[in-house]
Design brief:
By secondary structure, the chain is an all-alpha fold. Helix 1 runs antiparallel to helix 2 and helix 2 crosses helix 5. It is elongated.
């Protein structure tokens, strides 16, 4: 299943969960008991917060996809030629070695979103998801400023 389909399925499951949880919150508020009302309000906050987080992640994925398509059209996507283990995961030593090239590109052209996008993929290949996401957000921000 593609990542896009997985995201859609998970979003639909979340909506069902949020509706059921929200309904429970409404029922608690409807009891009239002060403790249940406070608990019901707290229960209603969970789906609202969850909806915001899901929306934010879907936006991130959409923006990343836009950048990837644009980079692919210009022939600037990094080639996925790193050796892999039998499990299919990228060999960590090879990813770390390739990382230096992308880091140097980003340092040489800090205002180019393309190098930040490639650096993000290098972080991801090296297994550093937190930095990969932060770097992709920087690429999105750079792209939005130049567009």
């Amino acid at each position: 299943m593609s990542a896009k389909r997985t995201a859609i399925v998970l979003a639909v499951v979340f909506v069902a969960y949020a509706v059921l949880l929200g309904w429970r919150g409404v029922l608690l508020i409807g009891t009239g008991d002060p403790v249940a009302i406070v608990l019901g309000i707290a229960v209603l906050v969970i789906p609202v917060l969850g909806a915001y987080l899901v929306w934010r992640e879907l936006q991130f994925g959409r923006q990343t996809e836009v950048l990837a398509r644009e980079l692919e059209a210009s022939g600037g996507l990094p080639v996925d030629d790193l050796p892999r283990r039998p499990s299919g995961r990228i060999d960590r030593a090879a990813a770390d070695e390739a990382f230096g090239k992308y880091k140097a590109e980003a340092e040489a052209a800090p205002d180019d979103w393309r190098v930040w996008f490639r650096l993000s993929t290098a972080y991801d290949a090296a297994g550093d998801r937190k930095r990969a996401r932060a770097t992709m957000r920087a690429a999105i921000s750079q792209h939005d400023r130049t567009s």
